[in-house]
Specification:
This protein has 222 residues and is mainly beta. The chain has two domains: 7-144, Beta Barrel (Elongation Factor Tu (Ef-tu), domain 3); 163-213, Roll (Membrane-bound Lytic Murein Transglycosylase D, Chain A), CATH 3.10.350. It has three helices and twelve strands; from the N terminus they run E-E-E-E-E-E-H-E-E-E-E-E-H-H-E. It has helices at 72-80, 175-183, 189-196; strands spanning 7-10, 15-17, 25-28, 31-34, 47-51, 55-63, 103-107, 110-111, 115-127, 133-144, 163-168, 209-213. The chain has a four-stranded antiparallel sheet, with no helix packed on it. Helix 2 (175-183) crosses helix 3. The protein starts with 6 loop residues before the first strand and ends in a 9-residue tail after the last strand.
């Protein structure tokens, strides 16, 4: 039985594989409750003030000692995710609206919320005789970026309108071909794009897991 590897999916659809699966995950959630003191009562009656951003803590290990190449070729991708991404649709240098992209963590049946990397601590633990870093430990804190459904162990399509199916993109596939195969209508590619937050339907990375929502529940998708 093959071991399924975890990976990070970026906002632009790129996939960053984890060389080793994490040994543990820590998920935190907080809600805001407000109350006022009432004379003659032992405790106030609380009023729900809204949910706060969830967080996911994990530590990833990267090791390239087998081939002797620098492990920084992997860790640099994580650092880049914390830099302003000028290719995002929301980027406008004149208005200073740039931001790093969000990511999602996928591992088997566990699929996280859309999250930004709030903190990244890289520790290089093994080097070649020439000083090349060969092993690194990346401790990450992912902070929820937006409300997009439940999180933790869940269906990978949470946040879409009553999703029923998923599709993992194969090399050479485009959204219109996927729509034609699943819906019998290539024009429904817009439904898939909207459900998955895709801005460029011609640039979907192989391996990306797409939500395929029910067209009836999503208003037809045309």
């Amino acid at each position: 039985m093959s071991v399924e590897k975890a990976f990070l999916q970026t906002e632009r659809g790129d996939r960053i594989p984890c060389l080793f699966n994490p040994s543990e995950l820590e998920i935190s959630a907080r809600t805001e409750w407000r109350g006022r003191l009432v004379p003659g009562r032992n405790a106030p009656e609380l009023e729900f003030g809204g949910g706060r951003s969830g967080s996911l803590r994990l530590t990833l290990t990267f090791d390239t000692s087998a081939d002797g190449t620098a492990v920084t070729k992997h860790t640099s991708k994580l650092l880049e995710l914390m830099q302003v991404d000028a290719k995002l649709p929301s980027h406008d240098a004149a208005r200073n609206t740039g931001r790093p992209g969000w990511v999602k963590f996928h591992w088997g049946d566990l699929h996280s919320f859309s999250a930004v990397i709030e903190q990244l601590d890289l520790t290089f633990t093994f080097f070649s005789s020439g000083g090349t870093p060969l092993r690194a430990r990346a401790a990450m804190v992912l902070r929820q970026f937006k409300e997009d459904g439940r999180w933790g162990p869940q269906n990978p399509t949470s946040g879409t309108p009553l999703p029923h199916r998923t599709h993992q993109v194969r090399r050479g596939e485009t959204l219109d071909r996927i729509a034609a195969a699943h819906y019998g209508d290539a024009k429904r590619w817009r439904l898939i794009a909207q459900a998955n937050g895709i801005t460029n339907p011609m640039d979907v990375a192989p391996g990306t897991v797409l939500a395929l929502p029910d067209p009836k529940e999503a208003g037809g998708g045309r």
